[in-house]
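Bug report (template v2)

What were you trying to do?
Predict the complex of my protein with adenosine-5'-diphosphate-glucose.

What happened?
Run completed; filing so the output is reviewed.

Input:
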Amino acid sequence: TVTSAEANVKSSLIVVSNRLPFVLKQDDQGGMIRQASAGGLVTAVAPVVIKGKGLWVGWPGLHLPSDFSDTQIPESDPTDQTPTAGLKSDQVVTVNCDPDLFEMYYNGCCNGTHWPLFHSMPGRAIFSADHWRAYVAVNKLFAEKTIEALERCYKNSTNKGIPIVWVHDYHLMLCANYIREMAEEKDLKFHLAFFLHIPFPPWDIFRLFPWSDEILQGMLACDMVGFHIRDYCLNFVDCCQRNLGCRVDRKNLLVEHGGRSVRVRPLPIGIPFDRFVELAKGAKKIIKTKQKVILGVDRLDYTKGLVNRLKAFELFLERHPEYIGLVNFLQISVPSRTDVTEYQQLKEEMDQLVGRINGRFSTAIWSPIRYIFGCVGQSELAAYYRDAAVAMVTPLRDGMNLVAKEFVACQINEPPGVLIVSPFAGAGETMHEALLCNPYELGAAADVIYRALTMPEDERSLRMSRLRRREMDTDVNHWMRSFMKAMGSGVEEDDIGSTQ
Ligand code: ADQ
């Protein structure tokens, strides 16, 4: 008999994402090693895949030889403690693709077109038919591999429930449609869902994409389509009605398509809250100055509003020279998409801006901005989050933004610090007790910095305790449960992993 938590996962989960939850690397002996990744998404999703004997379909982070077989994927290292350690190699389906085609799909269509367009920055988007063809081809390839995963799932699993296929993000918006077509030919039964991690733009932006109908049809092949917040759901519903002429129900968030009723759901993602609390409790102190620290942590991406943030800080120093020598801005930027020109230009712009502001305000013993360009470890990050007086999370546009949530989780000291968040991030919609700051309006942003630095202790405590309570209650495991519930699949508490 099947006992314990496994019995409670009624359906196997097949996750389809651009990247696998680990990367494969060639070792010195010509063999292959698995290097785990520890993001919050993986932490929550991997245990459900593992326990339900599901599978994960994705690109392994390197281009494999064309004769590569998934039987060559190594098992995880016995010392591996990460959530994917229990994912057996036969639960993984790699997508291997011609490097030139992958480049046009990934840097071309995904990051060159969809990323800026979906963040409502059409001026930065490149519209190329070649890139689009590559996107179509790679989405088909992912769909073929998902069918392989479904067949494997039927063969291996003892679960009686119908498997759930869960496709992730803007890289794979066409995939569900191909999966449905290919599966119909083979008479495979499954539930199909999609989740978008970035915003879904309003219709007048979305329609600029020459193949926008195909994108909608791709997503509408699902039984359920999830977004972080209701506004993105409504944008999507609106586009389905205006582009495709679908019948829609805005109140209940339903779209009729192909004789089916597609559910559209807000599913705001959370973080592994308890894990960040533990990290913050154990992290060594790094910030040792008496100066108050204003913190920024982001991928170096033009959507994150880094240039505006530094300019707002410059204006703050101009208006409040009494803070010279008393406050530091610490910006930690992790390099991202470094082979894309837009990102190289942003790096240069940031380097110059930091230099200019530091040159303008520095004294012999103090400089206003410290700028770390690199990835910092989780424990170090927790120490910065814990000891900062203010966190500025001010993207120009952002699906959710996990940094805002990680900061509040790590604010374990009394009195706590202050969170400043942009209303144009999903987090700005849900984290009501944060100070709102429009990053486009530099004067107002400078005033918000002043307000954060001068906020009375009791107000800081009240705001932070409410923010922390909400993030604790709606952590990433809550998100995973909400997804399974929205799919109508019973999952017991035990099946969603502990995040510590
Ligand atoms: P991202 O655009 O990557 O995610 P975000 O949600 O902020 O943005 O997540 C970034 C992650 O990277 C955080 O977990 C953070 O700790 C980490 N990170 C950032 N800078 C770092 C550094 N210098 N060193 C180490 N770690 C660093 C996309 C969407 C978001 C959405 C998420 C999840 O764009 O809007 O919240 O997916 O759905």
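What did the reviewer find?
The pocket of adenosine-5'-diphosphate-glucose is lined by residues 197-198, 269, 297-299, 332-334, 375-376, 381, 398-403, 406 (CB under 6 Å). Residues 89 and 146 are 16 Å apart (CA to CA).
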